[in-house]
Design a protein that fits this description.
This protein has 168 residues and is mostly beta strands. It is built from 2 helices and 10 strands. A hairpin with a 3-residue loop joins strand 3 and strand 4. The relative contact order is 0.18. The N terminus is likely disordered. It is 13% helix and 51% strand. Strands 1, 2, 3, 4, 5, 6, 7, 8, 9 and 10 form a 10-stranded antiparallel sheet that branches. The protein has one domain.
Length: 168
Amino acid sequence: MERTSLTTRTLVFTVLSILCIVVLEPAHAQKTGGTPPIGVSASQDLPAGAVFGECAFPVRFELNGKAATITLPGGRFIFTSPGLNATLTNLNDLTKSVTLNITGAFHQSTDRNGDTVTVVTGRNLLGDPDAGFVLAIGSFSFKFDASGNLVQPLAGTGQLIKVCPLIS
């Protein structure tokens, strides 16, 4: 049974959608290796309910800090974010804001059958159809099939903190 669509898949990578432009694109120019951490400063407004129906209000998502990508053989990569913070602001009440340290790492690889497996470690800001919009602290994974359908929602060990109540 299909868990979610390709459109929803893009929401799972809320953080990566901004960082791909800033960090990942330069890394793809290299065959293997990494980019030194670079400064990241980006902002995106998310409409109410944009991340799996969570947050009944629009949210400003701002990233500040450093990030890097390590490109590995076999189409694998590790995205690191030393010193990266995400500030989330309730756009209906600008006094409600939280800054989260998101210095975790994304380890991504592709299985033989074409599934994309992502393991996140440390502190990461994620969106998932079951967990919702969360700060994940620990070791978690999720998987998409070759067509972009979520086949394994967020699973792992650690703590999941709902983001929306922090700014509501």
